[in-house]
Amino acid sequence: MSLDWHIGKTELVITSMPLLPQFLLNDPVSFHRVLPLGGATQCRLIAYVKTAGSGTVGTVAISYRAGGYSGTFGDYAPAGPFLLVNVAGTADTGWVDLVEAAREDDTSLALVTFGGNGAASPALSYLTVLLR
User: Fold this and answer.
1) Is 38 exposed, middle or buried (0-12, 13-18, 19+ CB in 10 A)?
2) Contact (Cβ atoms closer than 8 angstroms) between residue 61 and residue 23
């Protein structure tokens, strides 16, 4: 099994990146996919960090919810990879094992952010999720 999820934005600015976890851009609809992950065991996040979050270690991560989509952030749990966006250039998590509970055929994956300082606004290009 191999799945690629290209976010499709050439520049994605995370304005005033939040400290506490939330859906990417606080948007539960645009940055999620329900995928058949029954055969997937690993996940990888790759992005080009055009503008790094200054003075902070902001993070983009994947969270999951078994059983399909939910627009409620509290229904999701960390799935595995965490991409740091505090340094400009290519950021890559490498292959990370998906948590066992995320390996279902109706898993909803959502991109989330956290660890910002509420002021810095990192800009990303070519954010891609790879699954195998």
Assistant:
1) exposed
2) no
Find how far residue 26's CA is from the centre of its chain.
Answer: 12
Closest CA to 62 of 35, 44, 37, 81: 81
Q: What are the structural domains, with CATH classification, of the chain? A: 3-131 (2.60.120.1340)
d(CA 78, CA 110): 10
* Cα–Cα distance, 80 to 112 (Å, whole number): 12
CB 26 within 8 Å of CB 14? no
pLDDT in tens, 8-33: 667 888 888 888 899 988 887 888 88
- pTM for this prediction: 0.85
Instruction: Judge residue 22's burial from the number of C-beta atoms within 10 Å of its C-beta, 0-12 exposed, 13-18 middle, 19 or more buried.
Output: middle
Tokens of 60: 């983009």
Condensed to tens digits (0 to 9), the pLDDT of residues 32-76 reads: 888 888 889 999 999 999 988 766 678 999 999 998 899 899 999
What pLDDT, in 10s, does the model give residues 99-111? Answer: 999 998 889 999 9
